[in-house]
Write a structure and sequence with these properties.
The chain is mainly alpha-helical. It is built from two helices and no strands. The longest helix is centred in the first third of the chain and has 24 residues.
Length: 45
């Protein structure tokens, strides 16, 4: 994997994390937050 691919991947993961964070903040119930957390299963950088 070259440098460009690594940068692209890191950016994509950052975007996904921001989307997950937004979903967690706007989720009205704890059950929904738990479900989001379960399906997100964040990937390490």
């Amino acid at each position: 994997m070259n440098v460009i691919d690594r940068i692209r991947r890191r950016r994509q993961i950052s975007r996904q994390h921001r989307a997950i964070d937004r979903a967690m903040q706007t989720a009205p119930t704890q059950a929904m937050r738990d479900e989001i957390a379960f399906f997100a299963q964040r990937q390490p950088f």
